[in-house]
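Input record, target 12 of the design panel.
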């Protein structure tokens, strides 16, 4: 074998061993809500290459709701940051994980995590200014964090405007988030109504998410009829959108349309079995007086959401529904 051939093998074999994953490796699985498959694939890729930033990001994406998985993912993400300090993906991933930890903790723990979350999101945006996911999470941080931790509506608006300079449509999605936070629902609806679906998948996904955020905000504001109409339109436009069916079911439940709510929530769960809709489905069955189905729904919900405010309420409802002894 020639020396040049040996040299070629020596330089190409290691690069194959540490090859980075691609977005396409994970996107189809995530779109089909196959989170377990995403986790398995990501862990396999990371085992071969601890600096696989794409695999790290997708692992973080599907690990946010489970404390144990979240802690493991944080360790792997910190390893990625040490190896790739300029990786926007890795910085964004660890910000997402700490953000989820903060949301599941008490106020004191939230403050403990706040500076790290903000730092990681800011780094991700600085390293990749066009990263919409990082911009979106930074916007939410500014809107949700207290002023003492750097929260600011003005900063959220500035972040949306900066995104708009790079991509005007994506900037409008972030501006809609600000309108929703400020309960300027009509402004948000007008803004989103002017954006038409196209061939760009990121734009279409962003539009769907923005409409859903508005719908859930309307539910939180007890504007159930408006929310129901919004989600009904979304279901027609995207019949395989689990979140749209879930939102429709929630609005129907709040309006005491129990049979319709049950149908919508069960439809959502057929699309995504771990969406979180089992909790609302349990409430719907409980209100109908169907104790066995209510118990089954609460138990199913607790099998994948064991902790948190909704889990605590589900446990309380189960204790009331189950006969003593």
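The sequence produced for target 12 reads:
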């Amino acid at each position: 074998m020639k020396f040049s051939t040996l040299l070629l093998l020596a330089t190409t074999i290691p690069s194959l061993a540490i090859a980075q994953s691609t977005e396409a490796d994970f996107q189809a699985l995530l779109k089909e809500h196959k989170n377990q498959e995403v986790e398995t694939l990501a862990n396999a890729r990371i085992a071969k290459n601890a600096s696989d930033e794409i695999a790290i990001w997708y692992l973080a994406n599907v690990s946010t709701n489970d404390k144990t998985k979240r802690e493991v993912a944080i360790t792997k993400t910190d390893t990625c940051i040490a190896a790739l300090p300029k990786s926007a993906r890795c910085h964004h991933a660890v910000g997402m994980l700490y953000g989820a930890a903060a949301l599941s903790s008490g106020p004191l723990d939230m403050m403990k995590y706040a500076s790290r979350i903000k730092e990681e999101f800011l780094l991700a945006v600085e390293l990749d200014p066009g990263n919409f996911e990082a911009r979106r999470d930074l916007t939410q941080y500014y809107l949700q964090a207290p002023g003492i931790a750097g929260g600011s509506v003005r900063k959220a608006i500035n972040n949306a405007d900066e995104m708009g300079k790079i991509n005007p449509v994506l900037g409008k999605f972030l501006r809609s988030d600000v309108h929703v936070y400020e309960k300027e629902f009509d402004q948000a609806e007008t803004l989103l109504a002017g954006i038409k679906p196209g061939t760009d998948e990121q734009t279409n996904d962003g539009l769907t998410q923005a409409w859903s955020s508005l719908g859930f905000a309307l539910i939180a504001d007890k504007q159930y009829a408006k929310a129901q109409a919004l989600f009904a339109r979304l279901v027609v436009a995207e019949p395989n959108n689990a979140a749209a069916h879930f939102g429709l079911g929630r609005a129907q439940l709040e309006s005491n349309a129990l049979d319709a709510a049950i149908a919508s929530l069960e439809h959502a769960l057929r699309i995504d079995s771990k969406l979180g809709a089992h909790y609302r489905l349990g409430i719907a069955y409980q209100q109908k007086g169907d104790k066995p189905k209510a118990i089954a729904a609460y138990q199913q919900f607790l099998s994948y959401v064991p902790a948190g405010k909704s889990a605590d309420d589900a446990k309380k409802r189960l204790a009331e529904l189950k006969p003593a002894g």
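Residues 107-127 form the longest helix (21 residues).
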